[in-house]
Write a structure and sequence with these properties.
heterodimer, A: mainly beta, Immunoglobulin-like, 1 helix, elongated, B: about 200 residues, alpha/beta, Rossmann fold, 5-stranded mixed beta sheet
């Protein structure tokens, strides 16, 4: 009786596991990292703790444009040598500290090269916005 | 005996793989449409329209051009915005958010009864206005533009760039007093096997 070599049986095993991993990983939607520990550096900046030591908010300035719209600019620096992608969003609050829900908070993605500084700017959606909060979290994409 | 053991091990692994495959792939859940967990593909996604619209409105407001209107809010009508991309999409995805954001600033209001080619956004409002002989709103601004696409590919990476160009024209002077361009670029790399 002729038996197959153990190598070919292990080959089948390897290929089947590889196929399963390929489909389970590549066919799933893009997932972002869990912002497990939000750490509040200031009351107007919230940063995902996984970015600590890699990305810092150096400065935040506020101004007014078009007469009565609050404008915010945050300087972000990558203190590491590696390129990093992150998501950020600005939340706007009225003078009573109530979140302005229209328009909804929109997250955007930015890329920052190693040791580079960039500016994030935003303009308040309406004249009622008197305060803000900047949220920053790491982007994890499987693409 | 040894062969049987190996064979049963292989079978077990194969069965586990099948179970992993079938149980891991099917999952449906709600995500925040404006949040960071939406799906990213090389085509224009919902977050791209939002980003383009938000950045255009921000640029318009920061330029100070909206202050030129003697009365605010000034009336704006949406003119032609050409979709010169390979994607068949409704431009309202861009203009809808733009109009809403501009309205919120208090600097601009948009008319729904004046449209390009005499096709208004709201035909009922236009008809009612005609029946009442209502005064036609005086349009101070018109918004026009184009969306273009650039696709390039290397052996393992494909890149799409979407170029949004918008112009705000002052009707009286017929001059584009504000114009800006935003680019959104995405890259897609092939996996190890080059299948996905």
């Amino acid at each position: 009786m002729k038996f197959q070599s153990p190598l070919s049986r292990f080959g089948i095993l390897f290929v089947s596991i590889a196929i399963a991993l390929l489909f389970s990983a590549c066919n799933a939607p893009v997932r972002m990292a869990e912002p497990a520990d939000w750490e509040s550096e200031r009351d107007y900046v919230q940063m995902d703790q996984s970015l600590q030591g890699q990305v810092v908010i150096k400065d935040v300035n506020r101004s007014e444009v078009s007469g009565n719209l609050l404008q915010v600019q945050a300087e972000v620096q990558n203190t590491s040598r590696r390129m990093t992608r992150f998501n950020y969003a600005f939340e706007w609050f009225n003078e009573d500290g109530i979140l302005i829900t229209s328009p909804p908070v929109t997250w955007k993605t930015r890329q920052i090269e190693g040791n580079e500084s960039i500016f994030l700017t935003a303009v308040a959606p309406n004249p009622e916005a008197k305060d803000f909060r900047l949220k920053v979290m790491r982007t994890v994409s499987r693409n | 005996m040894k062969f049987q053991k190996l064979f049963s091990l292989s079978g077990l692994a194969f069965l586990s793989s099948v179970l992993l495959f079938t149980s891991g792939c099917r999952s449906t859940q709600y995500v925040d449409a404006d949040g960071p967990r939406t799906i990213v593909t090389r085509d224009l996604n919902i977050q791209d329209w939002a980003q383009a619209a938000d950045e255009m409105v921000q640029s318009m407001v920061e330029s100070g051009v909206l202050e030129r209107a003697p009365e605010q809010p000034a009336v704006m009508a949406v003119s032609q915005i050409v979709n010169d991309t390979s994607e068949s999409v409704n431009i309202e995805r861009l203009t809808g958010r733009l109009r809403a954001s501009l309205n919120r600033t208090g600097k601009i209001v948009t008319t729904t009864t004046i449209g390009l080619g005499d096709v208004p956004d709201d035909p009922l409002a236009q008809r009612e206005a005609e029946l009442r002989s209502a005064e036609r709103p005086e349009v101070f601004w018109t918004l026009s533009g184009i969306i273009m696409e650039d696709r390039v590919r290397t052996r393992r990476t494909a890149q799409s760039t979407y170029i949004f160009i918008l112009r705000l024209t002052e009707v009286d002077s017929q001059l584009a007093l504000w114009e800006d361009e935003r680019r959104i670029t995405k890259q897609e790399s092939r996996g190890f096997l080059g299948i996905f």
